[in-house]
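User: Hey, my collaborator sent me this sequence without any context and asked if I could get a structure. I don't really work with proteins. Can you help?
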Amino acid sequence: MAHNQEATARYATRFMKLSVGFITYGESTAKYLPYFLPSLQAQTDHNFRLLAVDNSQEKDNKNSQYIRSNFPYIKLIWPGENLGFAKAFNIMIGQALAQGAEYFLVLNPDMILEADFIEKMVEAAQADGKIGAVAPKILKWDFENNVKTGQIDSLGLTVTKEHRFFDAHQGATDDLSADAAQEVFGFTGAAALLNLKALADVAFNNGNHEEYFDELMFMYKEDCDLSYRLRLAGWKIILAPEAVAYHNRTVAGVGRNDLAIALNRKNKSKLVKEWSFLNQWILLGKFKNLPFSLKIRLASLLCSAKVLVFVSLFEPYLLKALTHLWAIKGEIKKRREQLKIRIGIEKIEKFMD
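Assistant: No problem. I've predicted the 3D structure and written it out in structure-token form, which is a compact way to encode the shape of the chain:
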């Protein structure tokens, strides 16, 4: 108890330029907290505030019980419903900005962090004032056996000429010699350090509040979308390979060709497919007027056509998302009109393989 009181006092009295946020939800996250939160507490850099949104339906649940008993200095927000990823993180980012933070660290709770993770992430972010986001090296965590592995989960996000998004080098063995910081297209929402000045720059105003992550996207591909917007606005996104985290990803993709992508879908739930399918079309609608080269336009159109044929034949239940897409076309247009575009499109195309 004395240890908890000391930690609470330390977190309450220091003015911090970094806020760290995560989302909990039911049993799916409660099992990770006894590993995740101690790895945060063990960081070499403690100069941060901790925020959490509990998207669980019941206020008193295993997540809130564990946090209140062991980490009472965490500001725990319970909205009374599942807000999804984007809206929950927007609440935390808004609070971080109001408290004078300069950076916000997005984390999934199904992770454990090396002790110098935050120190290395902040160090990388401060190397250049135009860095909008930092992606860490994320390796696979074998949760069942509580073993850190050398298998890559993500080295940031890549984008193809078809506008498909992938976690870079997922499934490969970590090359410990490749530890130089480098630019990447984007970051994964599992773990990213965000420059709050950059987020304020690219935020959408929906008439009521600022949206940093797009709240039209309940879950999945919000990271792709925000990475895209940061890039268009001229902000850099870098990989900091010295900052290492381990992630227990439940479904990982293997391969990037059409057949591999189709086969990978058998491991995804219907709900995940519905969110991902809709959000891909929202994303495409938002960026459709960008002056891409003919090669990129044709590749994206062909890919979209193939997706519609595949879905019509094998997953027709997803087509209902197109009705919703039509209903929100006005909201997508509003977002498209608020895009900050400060770079030539060739600077986006250089990331497309």
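In plain terms: The longest strand covers residues 131-142. You can pass these tokens on to your collaborator as they are.
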